């Protein structure tokens, strides 16, 4: 499989870069229309077009692989996928609200896992001109430069990112966590793209990140953070809705030196 992995990475990078061009062009011409999924979740015609572009290319090139994609196959039954089948996990636009409002914190996220192992991840931020990638065991990179997490050990020096769900009824415990973090850490950021938050932990711009997210938000970025030296765990007991390898429920990612302290701050039972 190792030889294939480098070829898969090249393929994923090319898809992500082309997808990024589509996103920048749609933003420049304002050629997108807003809509809402499940009444409250913003989606644009560009999310759909980019998803279609990425998924159709994967289908054509790797017809035996599976695709879990936010916009076209979010309910794929992963339990029925064989342990040896590669599964691509796609978020065509991570940061749709930013995209629609003309902010630059937007990314295309493409992850790949097999069985219970994350194999590769690409997170491309077209407006920031930053392309992050990692292969399991091969380190993490941004625009070709190796990434390393910050050496942060003390919560009081830590810059921590999080995010908020579209469903407003889930906010209360999240605000309690944010309050605890604000009291003990340097500050909190809500940048609007989980995939990029994970890459920024990898690059040392952030020291920790926590949020409950979906597989497509975290499949690629979690591997990039891990490969840059971050620890990955959870502050909530997860359900078995998703296989562990792409289960973003209660996701906590931080420098090794901060991990225990962040776990204590985010786990409301402690
Ligand atoms: C969202 C972003 C955001 C996070 C939300 C995600 P989307 O993804 O990653 O940062 O806080 O939980 O749903 O909807 O822009 O793909
Ligand atoms: Ca997302
Ligand atoms: Ca999305």
TrEMBL record:
Keywords of this entry: Hydrolase, Magnesium, Metal-binding, Transcription, Transcription antitermination, Transcription regulation
Binding site for Mg(2+) 2: 93
GO molecular function annotation: inositol monophosphate 1-phosphatase activity; metal ion binding
InterPro entries linked to this entry: IMPase (IPR033942), Inositol_monoP_metal-BS (IPR020583), Inositol_monophosphatase-like (IPR000760), Inositol_monophosphatase_CS (IPR020550)
Top-level taxon of the source organism: Bacteria
GO biological process terms on file: inositol metabolic process; phosphatidylinositol phosphate biosynthetic process; signal transduction; transcription antitermination
Enzyme class: hydrolase
SUPFAM superfamilies documented for this protein: Carbohydrate phosphatase
Reaction equation(s) it catalyzes: a myo-inositol phosphate + H2O = myo-inositol + phosphate
Enzyme Commission number: 3.1.3.25
Residues annotated to bind Mg(2+) 1: 70, 91, 94, 217
Cofactor or coenzyme needed: Mg(2+)
Family of the protein in this entry: Belongs to the inositol monophosphatase superfamily.
Protein name: Inositol-1-monophosphatase
């Amino acid at each position: 499989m190792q030889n294939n992995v480098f070829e898969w990475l090249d393929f994923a990078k090319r898809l992500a870069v082309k997808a990024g061009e589509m996103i920048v062009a749609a933003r420049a011409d304002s050629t997108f229309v807003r809509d809402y999924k499940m009444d409250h979740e913003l989606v644009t015609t560009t999310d759909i077009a980019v998803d279609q572009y990425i998924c159709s290319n994967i289908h054509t090139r790797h017809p035996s692989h599976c695709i879990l994609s936010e916009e076209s196959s979010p309910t794929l039954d992963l339990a029925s996928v064989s342990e040896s089948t590669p599964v691509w996990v796609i978020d065509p636009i991570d940061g749709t609200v930013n995209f629609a409002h003309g902010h630059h914190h937007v990314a295309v996220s493409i992850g790949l896992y097999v069985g219970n192992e994350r194999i590769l991840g690409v997170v491309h931020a077209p407006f920031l001109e930053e392309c992050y990638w990692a292969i399991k065991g091969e380190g993490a990179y941004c625009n070709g430069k190796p990434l390393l997490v910050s050496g942060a050990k003390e919560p009081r020096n830590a810059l921590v990112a999080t995010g908020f769900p579209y469903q407003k009824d889930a906010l209360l415990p999240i605000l309690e966590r944010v309050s605890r973090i604000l009291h003990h850490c340097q500050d909190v950021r809500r940048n609007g793209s989980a995939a990029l938050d994970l890459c920024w932990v990898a690059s040392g711009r952030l020291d920790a990140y926590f949020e409950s997210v979906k597989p497509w938000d975290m499949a690629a970025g979690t591997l990039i953070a891990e490969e840059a030296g971050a620890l990955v765990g959870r502050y909530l007991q997860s359900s078995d809705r998703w296989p562990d390898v792409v289960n973003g429920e209660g996701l906590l990612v931080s420098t090794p030196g901060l991990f225990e302290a962040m776990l204590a701050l985010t786990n409301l039972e402690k």
